Amino acid sequence: MNKDLPRSLPEAQGVSSSAILAFLDGIFDNPGELHSLIVVRHGHVVAEGYWAPYSADRQHLLYSLSKSFTSTAAGFAIEEGALRLDDKVVSFFPDSLPAEVSPNLAAMTVRDLLVMGTGHTSEPSFWSADGSIARAFLATPVEKAPGTHFLYNTPATYMVSAIVKKATGQDVVAYLQSRLFEPLGIATPKTERCPLGIPLGGTGMYVTTNDIAKFGQVYLQRGVWNGERLLSEDWIETATTKQISNGDDPESDWAQGYGFQFWRCRHDAYRGDGAFGQYCVVLPEQDTVVAITSGVPDMGHILNLIWERLLPGLQASALPEDPAAAAALSDRLKALSIRGPEGAAESPVATGVSGRTYHFPENDQGITTARLDFDPDGVALHLQDTWGEHTVAFGMGKWRSGTTTFLMKRISPALPFETAATAGQAAWTDAGTLTAKLCLLDTPFCPILTFDVSGDTLILTVAGSIGFGPSERSPIVGR
Fold first, then answer.
1. Same domain, 384 and 471
2. How far apart are CA 451 and CA 463, in angstroms?
3. Global pTM?
4. What is the reported pLDDT for 467?
5. Termini Cα distance of the chain
6. Is residue 403 located within the same domain as residue 364?
7. What is the CATH number of the domain that holds 396?
8. Cβ-count burial of 215 within 10 angstroms (0-12 exposed, 13-18 middle, 19+ buried)?
């Protein structure tokens, strides 16, 4: 069985190369960065690109796009009779219930979890003292009748993950292995897990962009892959149509309704998405899938670019060949790169700084020491903080590959790896300031580290365009 999607020139599938170029122009002109893009039309990949140092073989953190995979696992379990939409949530967790089960909690069903209609008015805690997310979820007051109130709720998807494990005896990754991943040729995804070993479900899955595109294509083809039915058409229809209202703004892609862990979009499209710009956008009327990984602060902007620049270029029939535009698009896709710091490769202060250890007073970032070691290939940062000792490599004016443990525990305490693949690039932005960009290649994050060594101190600033906390930390001064 062919487990990949065929490739085609855009115009042969009714797609304007110029429209894809216009989409890419819009990305370049705005904050944040795309890491990858695949556009699929009529089952053919018509555009595929990766912003170096990101690459096609790299599994990328999906954040909440993981929810759509967890929903799919629930769909298989329901079709196979291991689970029902109207099963009561409390029935699966007799040992984790609060002392008093409220009528609203007792009424909550699997369906309510899937549509984010649990009845909560604030998101339950994701952790508890004993490591049981289920116990923390069930202890949270359910203020409204389940099914009547939408609240985007990642712990609710964790509960779906935990229920799939209880109902089938397999966690969602293992359960999807033979049902989805193997037929599509998807390597077993890494996933973040709770202290009890259950996949987080609502976040924490890692797949490639090609995997995202194939996943979207299965949904576009209403559960069929290469002529074989994987998932029922009824499930696809229900999961991707509006099941609960989430607002009434006709111009917002977050207010078009919500299905089973899929957002409805404008233009009669739907999507799974994740924080900082992980997208699987399906446009049924245009027979198109758009798969993206990125690190952007404004997720709505990317969707707007799809509607405003890409959508008009999707025509009902094949377009005349456009060799100039097709060649320009091919060249652009091959040359994509994350922008590194701009500046000089050398500075007269480097020799005096190299090898010196700077000590920092107590600070909110937990950093205690830092040392910069310059070499012919660039510079290595050796840093110690609350979580241990770390090394980060940067090339001067070019990307330098490496691995690090730096920042890992700050991203998530449940990462499925201890050491992250990295690419770093640095430049002297003035004679006394080294600016370095670090791409954590499994994630959306590319923080900027600035080292001011113009005096007798090292002033370190860590900043980034995205993050759940402050985008820039206060500078810390080492001596």
1. yes
2. 12
3. 0.96
4. 81
5. 62
6. yes
7. 2.40.128.20
8. buried
Q: What proportions of the chain, in percent to the nearest 5, are helix, strand and coil?
A: 30, 25, 45
Q: What length is written for the chain?
A: 479
Is there a contact between 282 and 295 (Cβ–Cβ < 8 Å)? Answer: no
Local confidence band at 1 (pLDDT 50, 70, 90 cut-offs)? very low
Instruction: Write out the residue range of the structural domain in which residue 448 sits.
Output: 350-478
- Asked, for residue 413, whether it belongs to a domain, the answer is yes
Distance from C-alpha of 408 to C-alpha of 300, rounded to nearest angstrom: 27
User: Domain boundary at 334, 361, 383, which?
Assistant: 334
Which domain-ending residue is among 276, 303, 334?
334
Token reading at 61: 């953190």
User: Which SS3 state, helix, strand or coil, does residue 223 take?
Assistant: coil
- Mean pLDDT to the nearest integer, 31-54: 96
In total, how many domains does the chain have? 2
Is the confidence at residue 2, as pLDDT, over 70?
no
CATH label of the domain that carries residue 299? 3.40.710.10
Express each pLDDT in 344-389 by its tens digit: 999 999 999 999 999 999 999 999 999 999 999 899 999 999 999 9
Greater confidence (191 vs 130) lies with: 191
Torsion angles phi and psi, residue 381, rounded to 5:
-95, 125
Q: Is the pLDDT score of 94 beyond 70?
A: yes
Q: Please give the sequence-ordered ranges of beta strands (E in DSSP) within 296-376, or none if there are none.
A: 357-359, 367-375
Greatest CA span in the chain, whole angstroms? Answer: 72
Distance CA 180, CA 201 (A): 16
Query: Tokens 């007051």 correspond to what residue?
Result: 141
Is 191 part of a structural domain of the chain?
A: no
208 in Cβ contact with 189 (< 8 Å): no
Which of 397, 412, 465 has its CA nearest to residue 442? Answer: 412
Whether residue 270 has pLDDT greater than 90 = yes
Beta bridge partners of 293: 36
